[in-house]
Amino acid sequence: MTAGIKVLVIDDSNTIRRSAEAFLRQAGFNVVLAEDGFDALSKISDHHPEVIFVDIMMPRLDGYQTCALIKQNPTFKTTPVIMLSSKDGIFDRARGKLAGSDQYLTKPFTKEALVEAVHRHASRAAP
Fold it and tell me: Is the CB of residue 41 less than 8 Å from the CB of residue 73?
């Protein structure tokens, strides 16, 4: 089930991107990395990921804006977007929901949390 699932990780922190990539690759997923929302938007149309993880706090285009843009695109509106944030307030979670996110994970995340999130959402993403 995990083989061939394509996951996009969007985070401006190289450390976070690399650790998420390592966890997800160990679990057998194909991983695409983006360092900000603009970078991500072109990679989404190139790679068609089945699940997208997006950091909230990023320069230029934050995670809320990136998520909203993904969800407004008819081709990708059903693609699950999972917010990653070090903020765990109710307001932050509500903003994520308003932007269209499907789940909210707090940092530091575990390998298990990432893998479980992909499993939970990947089957829904299939067209």
Answer: no
